[in-house]
Design a protein that fits this description.
The chain is mainly alpha-helical. It is built from 15 helices and 6 strands. Helix 1 crosses helix 5, helix 2 crosses helix 8 and helix 8 runs parallel beside helix 11. GO terms for molecular function: L-amino acid transmembrane transporter activity.
């Protein structure tokens, strides 16, 4: 066995997990981020510092965890996998049939599989990095360890914008659902406020262990809506967006998109896998952090199979007449039923993204303070303020960019690539650069470098494509305007 220094104690890690690290930066990180000084002897297991006091755990992030505060290390691997599935499978899956419409069957399937491989590797790297550096709780902490204070703040801002913007996309999809179900009974902005209040109430639940049951609700809701959608498009006489009278359904094996349309489609797929940065929060609240890899393989494999089935079936029956989001593709009655079934899942998706956004700010605000894991007035004031703040910003984003697929593409290009690909591949290189130059090591270096630069290409090209498309839609006036009361269903 070997040991890696971790805060005020040592963490025993199997030899296969050991990698050389930058000792100076690691020591600085430990001094800045260690949550508590432990004077008594401790035993270490999977990132926990188990103190000599009965029932007390001293965690490298949360400090002392006991019965006087929330238990931030209570998440089992099955619940973790459920949260990972729900974080991934929500808004993104509603944009995938349109990707097939743009790219065609074969390129669409290949793109989903390619992004699955890249993002699953990145998610695995996050787990390994967390176990080697227990003091890391978010990507911003990892960036501080690697790049210093400036890097931490840049990544923190990008991370928060991505998570909050994704919460905004959830609000936008919820307003579409409310308008569809009620036949536009009131102003769309009002439905946006209602959506914000519902999500804020659920996001204020303090720990992922207590919120994990919402993952089951969300998965059940989205799956019920998707199964109904697939049944609906299969039995409907015509897609809801097909013109009256005769029409021709186009289902292409290989599409012929413009560069802008193609890169936007790729970025929608990246968005569908963009929950990876939140997995650091999940592993940080797991009881046994060694089970993280198991949860990732289960969740990512399940999500990818579902993505391929849903996108293929819906595109086969609807062709070019795909609604955005896709739940509106099967006709008016099925559209109402689908959105009614999906509404709880859409709310849970927004809840999870905004919960981890608020938790990020909360931990940054109270770290190294007894208020972080104790039920004090300061603890509650800061927590509820963080939840209210991120929900309000998400609402503004949803109302400012009212185009569903284009909002997904913009988030995927500008933020998800950086958060889900470039940072993780660089983290692996930083942690493993001084390993022995074996064939396996060289192969992994080449793979990470290729993934890294693919991420930069998608970021630059995808942002350009998204901005061009959104600008054109605003100019045309065809799709409404910001903060509009118009029916967006």
């Amino acid at each position: 066995m070997s040991v890696v220094s971790s805060g005020p104690a040592t963490v025993t890690v199997p030899p296969a997990e050991i990698v050389p690290m930058n000792d100076t930066k690691s020591d600085k990180m430990k001094n800045d981020l260690s949550a508590a000084e432990v004077a008594d002897p401790v035993d270490v297991e999977e990132g926990n510092l188990k103190g000599t006091k009965p029932g007390v755990i001293v965690d490298a992030v949360w400090g002392e965890i006991d019965e006087d505060g929330p238990n931030y290390r209570s998440l089992g691997w099955i619940k973790a996998a459920v949260l990972q599935v729900k974080l991934q499978m929500g808004l993104g899956i509603l944009g995938l049939p349109a990707v097939f419409d743009t790219m065609g069957f074969v390129p669409g399937i290949l793109i989903i599989l390619a992004v699955f491989v890249i993002c699953t590797w990145s998610d695995y790297v996050l787990g390994q990095f967390k176990r080697r550096h227990p003091e890391v709780y978010t990507l911003a902490d990892a960036a501080y360890l690697i790049f210093g204070p400036v890097g931490r703040e840049i990544v923190a801002v990008a991370y928060l914008i991505q998570q909050i913007a994704t919460g905004g996309a959830a609000f936008l999809s919820m307003t579409v659902a409310f308008n569809t179900i009620t036949s536009h009974a009131t102003c769309s902005v009002v439905w946006g406020v209602v959506s914000m209040c519902i999500v804020a109430a659920m996001a204020s639940i303090q720990t992922l262990g207590k919120i994990s049951w919402l993952g089951w609700v969300g998965i059940t809701s989205i799956m019920a809506a998707i199964i109904t959608l697939m049944a609906g498009v299969g039995v409907s006489d015509r897609p809801s967006l097909a013109p009256s009278g005769d029409y021709t359904l186009e289902v292409l094996a290989v599409g012929h998109p413009s560069f802008v349309d193609a890169i936007n489609a790729v970025c929608v797929v990246i968005f569908a896998y963009c929950a990876g940065p939140n997995f650091l929060n999940i592993i940080g609240e797991m009881r046994e952090q060694g089970d993280y890899t198991k949860s990732i393989l289960v969740s990512q494999g399940s999500v990818t199979v579902i993505y391929l089935i849903v996108a293929s079936v819906v595109y086969h029956f609807v062709g070019q007449y795909i609604a955005s989001p896709a739940l509106g593709s099967a006709g008016l009655i099925f559209k109402k039923v689908c959105y009614g079934l999906a509404l709880p899942g859409l709310a849970v998706g927004g809840t999870l993204f905004l919960h981890v956004s608020a938790k990020f700010i909360f931990v940054r605000s109270l770290r190294n303070s007894r208020h972080l894991s104790k039920n004090t007035p300061v603890h509650y004031i800061v927590w509820f303020s963080c939840v209210a703040g991120v929900c309000l910003i998400a609402f503004v984003i949803a109302e400012a960019i009212p185009f569903f697929n284009d909002l997904l593409s913009l988030i995927g290009a500008l933020f998800a690539t950086l958060m889900c690909i470039q940072l993780e591949t660089y983290m692996w290189l930083w942690d493993n650069w001084h390993m022995p130059r074996t064939v396996r090591w060289k192969s992994l270096v080449v793979m990470n470098v290729v993934f890294h630069f693919l991420g930069w290409f998608c970021m630059v090209a995808g942002t350009y494509g998204s901005v061009v498309t959104i600008n054109n839609k605003f100019k045309s006036g065809e799709f409404g305007s910001s903060f509009s009361c118009a029916d967006n269903s």
